[in-house]
Amino acid sequence: MATRDSMDNLMQQVEDSIRYAEEQFKQSSLQEHYNDDDYTKALQQLEETYQDIAKMAQSANSQQREQLHRMRLQLQQLQNTLILEGQ
User: How many CA atoms lie within 13 A of 49 on its CB side?
Assistant: First the structure.
């Protein structure tokens, strides 16, 4: 079972990654410029966080896995938005 602290830390990482990606998306949309380094960094951060969720799920109980699954879906949705809008 994943510890409560490790779950809390991961949840904070997810929130931070999402906030950063949304900020970069907003800035890129306003500038109509999608290929800057920060935009790419935001996508990379989302992917790294996604991978961290997958690792945590291996040691999580069923309730934690459900929570991790919801976080993973949220990240995927944002990744898809950034990729589709950035093209």
Answer: 30
pLDDT tens profile 1-34: 678 899 999 999 999 999 999 998 888 877 766 5
Residue 17 in contact with residue 78, Cβ under 8 Å? no
| Predicted TM-score of the model (pTM) | 0.85
- Distance, in Å, from the CA atom of 48 to the CA atom of 31, rounded to the nearest integer, reads 26
Q: CA 1 to CA 35: how far, in whole Å? A: 40
User: Count of residues for the chain?
Assistant: 87
3 state DSSP class of 36: coil
Q: Which residues contact 68 (CB under 8 A, 6 or more apart)?
A: 10, 53, 56, 57, 60
CA 66 to chain centre: 16
